[in-house]
UniProtKB/TrEMBL annotation:
It comes from the Eukaryota. This is Transcription factor domain-containing protein. Keywords: Signal. Residues 1-20 form the signal peptide. Residues 292-311 are annotated as: Disordered. The keyword Signal applies. The lineage of its organism: Eukaryota, Fungi, Dikarya, Ascomycota, Pezizomycotina. It comes from Cladophialophora psammophila CBS 110553.
Length: 350
């Protein structure tokens, strides 16, 4: 029973943060109970590592997204970093690809939460102080995103490793387990937003991050069983953003900023939809979040055909698509996009 509860806690906390929701288990009593379980029960080391990682994120989440100053948030980020890094020393002999992936996704969640919250508060604080901390979070987030993508695209299959492939994490006919799929999408959209499509970034960082994005795109294409299966749709979004990065929405005031980590993913999907001519996707999603709030229905632009004069980015190395981009992909909300029950992969692959 304790192991089952811990497993549910790990997945629930990770996906809650990824989808822009606060952890449901986060009180001091809850977190102390987790410590008690881990101390008194015989828990497999890998489950213990995952539980400690998500316990750390649950502990700091509300403070990170709360009304605190830049210096306080920077201190909170450093404290959470120290707690996470201590786990790698404590469980060094038990950290496999599975645990390493979750560890770096948690770090990416940490830096993304700080960046998104600071963007919300950017008008309230000194821009120099805010800028220095934001740059630090971007750099550390880039390192975490690179590691997430490396593990996802290479290490999970044992590429270059002496051990056998870790087939538990990749099933060619079922795409990828949702926890890992969501994590690698966040890493990809993080790199696109802050580096690949950011002309102010260092040229070397842009090139390195672009290569990581290409790795994810190739992996998703490899493991999709159908162009409308989740990996195929995710690859389409990545390709649209990468090819037409200059056509992204220029007005940052239209960004969704109050959904934590999910803000990065939602803004990427909305930008891709805008490029494809689906101009009212933002309104539809905000109405689903809170349909009773008139403030969330300010974007009344109607859908129009794509801009045929959009300039492609020739440096990203994509080959031409073998099939047209389906318009129906934009009828999927973010949550529907991540719903594996929407498609019967066995029937498609038959």
């Amino acid at each position: 029973m304790c192991k089952t509860w811990l497993g549910c806690f790990v997945i629930n906390t990770s996906l809650s943060i990824a989808l822009g929701n606060p952890p449901s288990v986060k009180s001091a009593l809850d977190l102390s109970t987790i410590n008690s379980i881990l101390r008194k029960q015989q828990v497999p080391p890998r489950l213990a590592i995952d539980a400690h990682i998500q316990q750390c994120m649950a502990k700091y989440h509300d403070s990170l997204v709360g009304e605190v100053g830049v210096s306080v948030r920077e201190t909170l980020v450093q404290m959470c970093e120290q707690d996470l890094n201590a786990l790698t020393d404590r469980f060094n002999n038990y950290i496999d690809n599975h645990a390493a992936f979750n560890f770096h996704v948690a770090k990416l969640h940490l830096y993304t939460l700080a960046l998104v919250r600071e963007k919300q508060q950017s008008k309230q604080y000194d821009h120099l102080e805010l800028g220095n901390h934001s740059v630090r979070c971007q750099q550390l987030g880039m390192a975490a995103a690179h590691r997430v993508i490396d593990i996802y695209c290479n290490d999970l299959e044992g590429a270059g490793a002496k051990r056998a492939p870790d087939s538990r994490l990749i099933g060619p006919h079922r795409a990828l387990p949702k926890q890992f799929f969501v994590g690698v999408l966040l890493a990809t959209f993080f790199l696109l937003r802050y580096f690949v499509l950011n002309p102010a970034s260092d040229a070397e960082q842009i090139a390195t991050s672009r290569n990581k994005v290409l790795m994810v795109h190739a992996k998703l294409r490899q493991f999709t069983s159908h162009q409308l299966a989740e990996p195929g749709r995710a690859a389409t979004v990545i390709e649209v953003l990468s090819r037409h990065g200059d056509a992204q929405r220029a007005d940052p005031s239209e960004d969704i900023e109050d959904r934590g980590v999910a803000s990065i993913v939602w803004n990427a999907l909305i930008s891709a939809a805008d490029i494809r001519g689906r101009r009212n996707l933002r309104t539809e999603w905000l109405e689903k979040i809170n349909p009773s709030s008139p403030a969330l229905r300010t974007d009344n632009r109607s859908s129009r055909s794509p801009d045929l004069n959009v300039q492609e980015n020739p440096d990203l190395g994509f080959v031409d698509l073998e099939y047209p981009l389906p318009d129906s992909v934009w009828d999927q909300s973010f949550l529907q996009m991540l719903d594996f029950t929407a498609y019967d992969f066995n029937d498609i692959g038959a």
